[in-house]
Structure formats: C-alpha cells, structure tokens
C-alpha cells in the first residue's frame, strides 16, 4: 500500500476492485514510480498538488516500461472519474428522506446545482491524470530519437495523449461554459497544462482553445495507438476514434463526428445481443464485455442503494425494450435503481467508459445532420435490433428528419443512462435550442430549478484553485 491507495497496478499481489491483468515485473515498476511521486509531493494534499512544482532534480525513470507503468495505474487512470455531472442530470432522483441522510455535502449540493458544492477533489483528480499524461510525454521526449520510433513507445505516447484529452473533456462538461459554434472564443475554458510542471502557465484558456487541444491530442493518439489494446483499461485506436467522435458531437462538428464514428465502428462494431442476457440477474452485464472500447468508472456520488432512476426516464422504455429489464431493478418502495452497469457489479461505482453502442448513436446523429437519412436509420436500427425483443422487432423507417432526430435523442437517453453522458447532452440541447425545458428537484417543501439560460449550468471552480491567482472564476 502507498499512501492508503495501493499500488494500483492491478496485478496478482494486489487486487484493485478485481482488476487482475498486469504482470509482476510491471508491478515493480509501478512501486518505483509511485515512490518517486511521493517524494516529489504529488500524493499529498490538494493545495500542495497544485501549488508545489515537481522536483526537477529527482531521478526520473525513462524506459518505456516505466511510462507504461504510470499509465497502468488503474486507481488513478481508470477509476473515480467525475461524478458531479451524473448528479446534475435528470437520470437520477433522490427522495427527501434519502437526501436528508446523505452525508457527502458536495453530493448534496451538486444534486440541487448549488454553488456551495466543493468539487475540488474531482478537479484535482482530473488534473492529476493530466500530470500523469504530461509526465509520460516528457519521459518519451527525453528518450533517444531512435527509441521513440518503437511501436511500444508510440503506443504509450498515444495512451498519454488520449488520457489528457479525456481528462479535459470531462472537466469541461462541468467547469467550462458550453461550447457554442462561432462564439467559442468568448467563453472561459480550462487551464491547459501541457508540460510536466503543473504550475507552469496555470491560467484559463478560451473554450475554443480547450476543445482544440482535445481534438489535437486525440487526433494524434488515433495514429499512434494499436488497433487492439492488450487491456481494455488502455486506450486503443477504436477508443480514440470514439473519444474524438464524442468531443466532435459536443462541438457540433458533425463532419468530424461522422468521420470518427464511422472509423471507430469499422474497426470495432460488435454489439451485445440483449436477448441473450438474463434480465432477472442481479448483475446482467460482465465487465470488459464485447461493446467496451475503453473501461473507466465514476462514483455514484449518492449511493445506488438510496437513489432511484428518474421516474420520467423509466417510463420512456417501451415494454419490448430489453433495456427496461436489464438496466433497472424494482425496489421495495416501488421505484427502480440501476443494475445495467458495464462495470459488472451493482454498487456505488458506475461504468462511464466508451462503447460501440455510443458510437452507433453518434453515427446516427451525425449522419442525419449531414442529410444522410438512410445512414442514420441504418446505424440506429443496427443498435436497436440488439436491444429489442426478437419476436416484436421491426426496423424503424422514419421518413421525417425532425422525427428521426427526436428518436435518436430518445435513444441516447435510454441507451446511455447512468454513464455521465446525460448532462453533456442536456447542455448541448439547451445550447442549440432543441430542448427548452429546465430541470427541477422537489425536496420536502423546497423546489430547486435550473433554467437553460442559467449561469449555473457551469459549476463554480473550486475555491482552492481560484485562490491561487491567475484563474478567473465562472460567472454568476
């Protein structure tokens, strides 16, 4: 154990939530690097993490195995991703009595879109991943030129760029203003830290620059990564295409979204046939199933034992939609909680990685936006055929583009519930005007409302970050 976290490599001598896939040699590399980071102060408190610059005099391992070991720390890289966006969304509802019993004040505040939410831990965790990626990239840059051409080195560089892009994407959905085509230079984005010195140039960029950096990083990663990763906790070429498609969708760049989703599906388009799964099982889905392109998880924020799926969402599932029985479990109070977890467990940890199912939906939405109704229907039907009872399945043939767009939005709602993707969709729909309803919470006699034009669609930055200076707070 290191700093109470465990080494995080996931090998046989240490079980990190059941991840058993790295060898003991990599485990020794992990110990060496984590000890180095402890000496450098990275694993200390939040203020030190942001305020102290790494010790440049420390001896840093420079082999590709060392770099891979940093990226194979599943505790840091693949676990505990941002959960506030899940609580911001209308996927989840919490009763007044259950809310009163929640002891995590940040979770309580995020559920009602409160400005008092202290999201410092989530901010720090994402920037820790950024630092992890930057450290790897710097290690590779210090290698002899001949070594950097090796496939293993190219792979590791691609993984680091993917991780940095994914970190910035997830941070942007909570802390940066929504992307708006043609006005993206006007809004605040994120501090873009692109070196291993996390204190260097720590100022906010524009939202345009933030997304441009994501696109730049993940585009480079696409050409560096292998078509198949050794483990699904590592990035691959299809995973990078999927991330690029997700980023492009958020930007409204449908040409790029269509290109990326098509390229990803060409390499890996497998879908689970939900008709072969057991809806009565407590855990219907296996971890690392055939649809998973990249595996990561987020906390529930508020335990799945006390939270429930929004009743409006549950009612949207048709009787013959197999997701209705596979995703949701009836509870004694007559409401439902979530069991459709691609992490293969029912707990307070939800899968929030990248899947082929999401890619089919991006392919459908982008194709329709570009005038390809047949392509949109084809992608949508490929997905729904694997989600519907076989005896009643009839391919969709929606002629009206507006109705088809509405159906695609509905299927995103049904397919991607509890994966941290609903809140980005809500902000995107509000920004484009295709959805105009606000969000409401009722707790005892208190009603909380979030309107589409509210400044609170972007969370306040953690006070510890603003107190450092050079970082402008979000507007209120």
Describe the 3D structure.
It comes from Phnomibacter ginsenosidimutans. Keywords: Cell outer membrane, Membrane, Signal. InterPro entries: SusD-like_N (IPR033985), SusD_RagB_dom (IPR012944), TPR-like_helical_dom_sf (IPR011990). Belongs to the SusD family. It is found in: Cell outer membrane. The protein has 476 residues and is mostly helical. It has one domain (64-469): Serine Threonine Protein Phosphatase 5, Tetratricopeptide repeat (Alpha Horseshoe), CATH 1.25.40.390. Helices cover 46% and strands 8% of the residues. The protein contains 20 helices and 12 strands. The strands form 6 sheets. It has a two-stranded antiparallel sheet. A two-stranded antiparallel ribbon has the order 2-3. Strands 4-10 form a two-stranded antiparallel sheet. A hairpin with a 5-residue loop joins β7 (328-330) and β8. α1 (24-40) crosses α3 (64-71).
